[in-house]
Structures are given as C-alpha cells and as structure tokens.
Amino acid sequence: MTGDLNTTFGYRPYLYCGEAATATLNPLLISSKEASLMDLFGHEDPEEYIVRRRQEMEHPTGFATHEALKEAITSCSRCPLRREGGLGPVLSTGPADAPLMIVGEGPGGVEDDYGGPLIGPSGQLLDKALASVGITRDHVYVTNIVKCRPRGNRTPTMDEGHFCGSIWLLQEIALARPAVIIGLGKVALRFFLGREAGIIRSRGHWIDFHGIPVMPTFHPAYLLRQSGRALVDAKWQVYYDLKAAKERAAALRPDWVWQSDTPPDLLAALAGERAKRHGGE
Question: By CB neighbour count within 10 A (0-12 exposed, 13-18 middle, 19+ buried), where does 114 fall?
C-alpha cells in the first residue's frame, strides 16, 4: 500500500485532525514506539498503521473492567471537543456483554444534560425502531463515536470521529466484544469503513471491522428531517437493517434475551448521573 495516510484513511492517528493538513508531531499524544514509525512530518507509514491497529484490537491494553474504562473516558481532555462548552464526556448505556452494540455519532443537548447516549428526540425514535424488531434499550449496548458534545449540536467531523474513536471506541469494542455492531449515520460509517463514503449508498451493506460485522444505517436524526414518501422509505430501510443485525447477532448468541416486558425509562435511570453532571451529589 502506498500514498499519504491522510488520503488512504482520511486522517492521521494521534494528531488532532482538524489541523491535519499542517499538523506536526505532538509528543504529548504519542509514545516513543509510535514515533519511531513516523517520518519527519509526523506521518505514520500506512502499512505499519494497519499492523498496529490490528494488534491493538487483538491485544487490548489498559482497562480490565468497564468501570475503569468509564473513569478514564470521564477524565479525558485530549481534544478540543472537551472544551466546546459541554458538561463532559457522555458514556454508554446497556449491558457491556450485549451481543449487539449500537454506535451513534455524538451527544446532543439532552444527552449532554443527562449523560447518556441517544436519549433525546433521535433516541426516542431509535427506541421505536428497535421495538419494531423486538429489542428494548436495556438489552443492547449503546455508545457514540465522539464522547463530548460538539458546540451547537453540529455533526462531528470525520477527523474528530476518528480521533476520539481511535482512543475510546476501540477500547469499548475490545472490552465488550460485541457479536455485531450497528453504525448510525455517516460519522460511524466512515469510522468503521476507514474512508470517505456516503450513508445513502452504504447503508444495508455489511462491513467487516477486525472480524466484527458492522451494519451501517441511517441515524435517527436523518429520519427526523424527512417527510412524506422519503420518510416512509427511510423507516423501512432502517427496519430491515436493524432486523438483519439482530438476526445475525441472535445466531451468534442464541441464548440472549432481547427485550423486557416494560421498556426502560432511560431519563429516570440517568437522574443520578444528571445530578452529578450539574454539580449535585
């Protein structure tokens, strides 16, 4: 494989990629071992990068438990998103041993307020879509590519997604070891695919991510912007994508229970986390 890493993968690891075009090596974000794999401009060799990422997925380091990982994410301040005005990193919901992991883009206003992913209007629509295929939210693991709220609820850039995801989402995946992943929206799609791509053409097509099947589909926020026939078509497409993902995960984990008799009240469950985020006990 030849060519610049920014062209091949769309980002340069361990650098804040909003400045990728003119970035220099940051010694605070990279180890001496990793630095030895880079040229004088701070660009890692593409082939070395592929080998390293595969090794990291196969031999994760640093976190023996999910609680230890959450603590590390909570204290993270490694990129500018942490300083864009939000209340802090938003963590995951659901059981860490669930066979199905759902990965969104980033927290919005409600998510930043309560400290849980996909619990605002988009999350409520996701809950309805999951219910249509026999899933309640307390039986799947839900997280985001980026953990901190971008200012103004904007969509995270591809560079921001790869920077945060390569630090924390990879650790979540290595620790949880899901059987199947659902990627919601273009930020998740591009992270798992490793390059630029459009969600409209890519949804419904399986991606192999280090041996884990990933099903990309529309983000619920996209559905909220549709109307008429376009909305009906998009809802059916999401239904079939979720159904395919559940069926594949269920085949790999036939003993898993997928739904509760009563859907969980996520806002009530996150009341304690919300209080802590706002300075309460």
Answer: buried
Nearest in space to 121 (alpha carbons), one of 141, 104, 133, 101? 104
Strands laid side by side in the 207-209 sheet: 141-144, 100-104, 180-184, 212-217, 207-209
Residue 51: pLDDT band by 50, 70, 90 thresholds? low
Distances (CA, A) of 30 to 33, 37, 172, 206: 8, 11, 20, 32
Beta strand spans in the chain (E): 100-104, 141-144, 180-184, 207-209, 212-217
The full DSSP string for 208-243 is EETTEEEEEE--HHHHHT--HHHHHHHHHHHHHHHH
Cα distances from 41 to residues 7, 13, 159, in angstroms, run 15, 13, 18
- Fill in the DSSP letter of residue 154: P
Residue 231 to residues 103, 124, 199, 236: CA-CA distances in angstroms? 22, 16, 15, 9
Give the pLDDT confidence of 164-177 residue by residue, as tens digits: 999 999 999 999 99
Give the span between the Cα atoms of 1 and 28, in whole angstroms. 29
Q: Rounded to an integer, what distance in angstroms lies between the CA atom of residue 17 and that of residue 222?
A: 25
**Which pTM value belongs to this model?**
0.79
- Name the DSSP letter for residue 90: -
What angle, 0 to 180 degrees and rounded to 10, lies between the N-to-C axes of helices 121-132 and 228-252? 60
The answer to whether the CB of 191 falls within 8 A of the CB of 165 is: yes
Calpha distance 116→266 (Å, rounded): 8
Give the pLDDT mean for 232-237.
97
**CA-based Rg of the chain, rounded to a whole angstrom?**
19
Cβ atoms of 197 and 167 within 8 Å: the answer is no
